[in-house]
Structure formats: C-alpha cells, structure tokens
Amino acid sequence: MRTASRGLPLLVAALAIAYPWLVPNYYLVYAGALTVMYAAMATSWNLLGGFTGYVSLGHSAFFGLGAYGTGLLVTRLDVPWAVALPVSALLVTVFAVGVGVAAVRVRGASFVIVSIALVSMMNLVVQGWRSLTGGSTGLQVPSPFPGLHRGQTHMVFFYLFLVLLGLALLSWWYVSRSRFGAGLRAIREDEDKAESLGVPTGAYKVAAFALSALFVALAGGLYALWFGSLDPIFMFSILIGSYMVLMSLLGGVRHVYGPLLGALIVAPAGEYFLIALGETQVHLAATGVLLILVVLFMPEGILSRLTRGRGGPSIPEESAGQRLEGAAR
Amino acid sequence: MTSLRTEGLTKSFGGVPAVHGATVELRDGQVNGLIGPNGSGKTTFFNLITGMIRPDSGRVLYRERDITRHAPHRIAHAGIGRTFQLCRVFPRLTVLENMLVAVRRTRLRELLAGLHDEGEAERARRWLHRMGIEHLEHAEARDLSYGQQKLLELAAVLMAEPDLVLLDEPAGGVNPALIDRIVTLVRELNAEGRTFLVVEHNMDMVMGMCDHVIVFDRGAPIAAGPPSAIRDDPRVLEAYLGV
C-alpha cells in the first residue's frame, strides 16, 4: 500500500509530463494547461484555507493583480517577461501582507465577506484607473513567444503551469511537516488556545495568506502572458475564487493532493459544460450544483474518503459541511 | 522575589464589574491558590493576566516588567503558561502534534524546522512520559478520555517552559485518583522551581497543596494568606456561606 501511495504520484507526474504528446489536438493541450493552472491555484489557496480554516473567496484578487502587474510591467515599462512575472508576484505578496494584517483580524463569515470585498474593490480600481490599466476595455499583453503558433504556446504554458503546481505542492508538503504548519493547524482547531501556547497567530495567518497569494499571483502573471488579453471583469471574478474553494473541498482540503484532484474534475467539467451548454450562465448553475453535491455526499472530499484509516501526507479531517458552518459562524 | 503583581486591575462587561481593583502579589516558587464563589471573577482575572482580555484599568507586572497590554503569545514567551477551565486541546491533532504546537521562541529557523525534529520530539515524549500518556502519542487528542486530555493540556503548557503556570480548575470533572496525580505533579514541578496559581473549588486540594491562598469575592481579593489562616477567616466564611 505504501509503495502504491508513493508510486501513484510519480506515475501521475510522468503522465502529466507526457500529456501534451499523448493527446490528439492542441485544444486538449489548452484544456490541460487550464486544468494545471487551476490545480496550482487551488493548491495555493489550500495553503491558507486547508491549514488555518480561513475560507477566502477573494483569492481572484491576487490572480488579477498578478496578471495586471505582469502585463503592465511588460507593456508600460518594457520589462522582460521573465523578470516581470516574479517582480509582479512579489509586489502582490507585499500587498497581500498589508491586506492580510487587516483581513485576518476577523474570523469566520466576517473573513469571507472581507475577502469578497477585496476582490470587488480591486475590480473597481482596475476598471476605474483607465489611463493605466485600460479600464473595462482591458489590457493587451504581447506574447513572450512570438515565434510559436498558438498550439505550441499552449504547450509551453502547460509546462510552466506544471512547474508552478510542483512548487505549490512542494510548499504545502514542506509547511505541513514544519512546526510552522503545526501552528497553522492549531489555529484552525482553536486559535485562542494556540495563542496562549505562544503561537503568534496573527503573524502565522499573514504569512500563510501571503504565501498563498504569491503562487496565485504567479498563476495570474502566467495567465496574462499566455492569453495576452486581460478583461477586469474576468480577472477579478468571484467565480475564480469559488473554483479554488470548490476544487479544494471536492478533492479534500486536508490532503496535499486534494485540490489537484478537485481541479482534475472541476476544470475539465467546466470546459465540457461550456462546450455542451454554450456561452450561457447554465455552466455556472452546473458548477453550483456540483458544489451542493460535494457538500451533501462527499463532505470530507474524495481523498479523505479514499485514505481514511491510512497514513499519508494529510492533515486531520474536517468535513466541507463543518468548514462552511465554521465560515458562517 | 515577586513573580507576578497586579495593581488595581479592573474589567467590566456591559457595565457589570467582573474584576474590580484587584491588587495581588505572587512570590516566586510558591503554589498559590485562588478561590472564591462562582462569579467572583477568578477566570476573568486569569484572562487579564494572560492577555486574553484587556483590562479597563490597572497593570500586570511579571518579574517587574509591565505586560498589561501584551498579546497572549508574548505573555507566553515571557514565561506564563495556562490551562483553561474547560479542558482545551487540539482535537484533530495527534498527542505529539499537540505538544509540538507550543512555541517559546519564534526564530525562523526553529519555526521551519521539521515537525519531527528529534530533539523537540524527545522533549515532548519526556513530558508525555511524566504525565503517563506517552503510549498515546500517535492518537488524535479527541480520542483521549477527559482525564487524559487534562494531562495532555498540562503537558503542552509545560512544553513552552513556563516559569509561572496558571491552572484553571485542574480537578474539575476528573476522578479522585487523577486529582492525586495532578497534586503530585504540581508539587514536583514546584520543587523544580515553577510557581503556580491554581483556581480550584476542591477545598481539600487547595488547602493541602497550596502555600498561599487568595480569596476573591465580587471581583476583588478579600483575604490572602496561608491555608490555615484562610480556613477560619470570617470574611471568607461570609463570602462562601453568607454567615
């Protein structure tokens, strides 16, 4: 069993690396890149949500800021994309520290509302600051690989997102094995008690918030370079944050691979709904139905159910229902 | 030497005073009892000392250092540990993980050290062994009996190496055998140099274990002294019995 639990991730990694060569067309490479992007973002979200129990619906703010930061550095200041990407992400991380200091002072439902307010405010700022961001007409970002055709670009970004996913998974694993991670889990269990044992809970939460924002901002920056066209309505959409939450809950927030598994289901399902149902709001309703089904029938997530009673790189169980109840308290 | 001193500590909730002008002094190396009728402000006093709530006025000095408005984690780092009236452990963490949450120093290198760093894990196991629950290190805390959770809570507090330990009703809800065990532990830890402040309703325990007893009534101390003097103090009898 232990060999299988070690071998399976390696097999999945090998399959992921081979994926672009295994599929018959570039559309599936594009869908794969999108899925890996969401997997990286959900895993990043889980650095905050999974460890501390703080449910943020506003992580799309960091996605949008990372994208606009990268796009603006490239288009306005002629910064090379390979420099613009990490610089933008670091700036967003610094911003997240500032936001985090204020946001994590509140808990439960109040924190959820603060996170929603953040993404709404960023949307308004980017739309309103027309001279810099292009406002509602959006921002065009030149392709970093002008010599490649669209399909080849999808392939390059598939691998870039895969590297990002690897980094996010590695960070989660490292934190889960550290005393810092134990402190974060203690915050989820009983914040006041953790504080009384000497855990500087405020600093821990801000650190988790910022680390989580860093990877989401990197994903946003890569997205800007990949798609080349940024629309503030999409970039600062609450739906993107909701996807991160849904993917994590579905796969299991207590498990390092939970958000990845959730993304492997939700992202392709979203693409399927879009193709099958067209550019209507029906695919949003389908996503909502999926969330309800998860809470009703798979409250602890898929991996928690599959690995119940076994060892593995996971943190203790709490159902999605309890999580949502906790958020509502 | 004075371990802890409070000066005119006051806290009201909705205009109702819970602690009112409490001036108390604890000496190093003593086991101090804090007794009083229900609602006399004992737990609020604990929360004020440990920074869980902020006082309206007054000061808390620990080793002559003003810690009045410090955050609870800073007070813990200063060397004050506490347990809670209703036993609080991290239910979904293992016993060993519960022990490794405690932080005395916040150096980055130590925080990023592995959870299973052998030095810290061994120290945690020694405390668990002392509590008699070392065989449960891999169990989740929620699976322990209430008494075992009480011992785990105390062990986790001691993991942070406090010099002053505040115990809020350590005998509450536990069997007589475990009470004896807790009394023995407190005596041993006190002999090693730790100071204690114990809120407790079990008078036999308080009178048998403490060197010094403080009596609270209506949010303020009304008497303090050795157990023999407190036992027959008319103010104490009046507070408890209304006679």
UniProtKB/TrEMBL annotation, chain B:
Residues 4-243 form the ABC transporter domain. The keyword Oxidoreductase does not apply. One of its GO terms (cellular component) is plasma membrane. It comes from the Bacteria. GO terms for molecular function: ATP binding; ATP hydrolysis activity. InterPro entries: AAA+_ATPase (IPR003593), ABC_AA/LPS_Transport (IPR051120), ABC_transporter-like_ATP-bd (IPR003439), ABC_transporter-like_CS (IPR017871), BCA_ABC_TP_C (IPR032823), P-loop_NTPase (IPR027417). Signal peptide: none annotated. Keywords: ATP-binding, Nucleotide-binding, Transport. PROSITE patterns: ABC_TRANSPORTER_1, ABC_TRANSPORTER_2. Pfam families: ABC_tran (PF00005), BCA_ABC_TP_C (PF12399). CDD domains: ABC_Mj1267_LivG_branched. SUPFAM superfamilies: P-loop containing nucleoside triphosphate hydrolases (SSF52540). This is ABC transporter ATP-binding protein. It comes from Nonomuraea deserti.
